[in-house]
Amino acid sequence: AFSVVSKLLSQRKLDLLDELVSAEVLQVLKEKISSLPDSHRDALAADIDAIMYTTEGDVRIYYDDDGMKFVSILMRFWYLNGANLPDEVPGETKVFQIVFGDESTKEKRHLLTANYEFQREFTEGAKPDWTITRIEHPRLLE
């Protein structure tokens, strides 16, 4: 889901995210994506083969006021991307670069991070669909 959603964000195909992303998050993304420089938009895309590491950041089970049961999982992803980003980005944060090949054919890739929160209702009889309720690409979608 992370790879598919990140590619759709990069391609500005937000209308295809209706069933995957919550309406609130989608509205915020529409505002942010429209003002992104092309290099930052390109850096959002994470090919499935370029995902280097994933870990869960937070797992919660909770009930709302009506007694409906939910599970929320925050996932953190580290992925390589070849977008043309500056070496230094605002906020004085270093973007890691990895160089493949020799000096004449070197290919520069950035090691980027993203946080996606997935939520599903677990009340008896609820549809087994997961929804993305938070999307963060630090230094890209700010």
Walkthrough of the structure:
Helix content is 19%, strand content 40%. The strands form two sheets. Strands 1, 2, 5, 6 and 7 form a five-stranded antiparallel β-sheet that branches. The chain has a two-stranded antiparallel ribbon with strand order 3-4. The chain has 142 residues and is an alpha+beta fold. It is elongated.
Domains (count): 1
Task: Tell me the number of strands.
Answer: 7
Element order: H for helix, E for strand = HHHEEEEEEE
Question: Whole-Å distance between the termini?
Answer: 22 Å
Low-confidence stretches: 90-94
Q: Describe the sheet with the most strands.
A: 5 strands, antiparallel
Radius of gyration, Cα only, in angstroms? 17 Å
User: Structural class from helices and strands?
Assistant: alpha+beta
Chain-averaged pLDDT: 87
Helix content: 10-25%
Q: How much strand?
A: 35-45%
| Global morphology | elongated
Protein name: MAIP1 protein
GO molecular function: ribosome binding
Which descriptors would you attach to this protein?
elongated; two-stranded antiparallel ribbon; about 20% helix; about 140 residues; five-stranded antiparallel sheet; alpha+beta; single chain
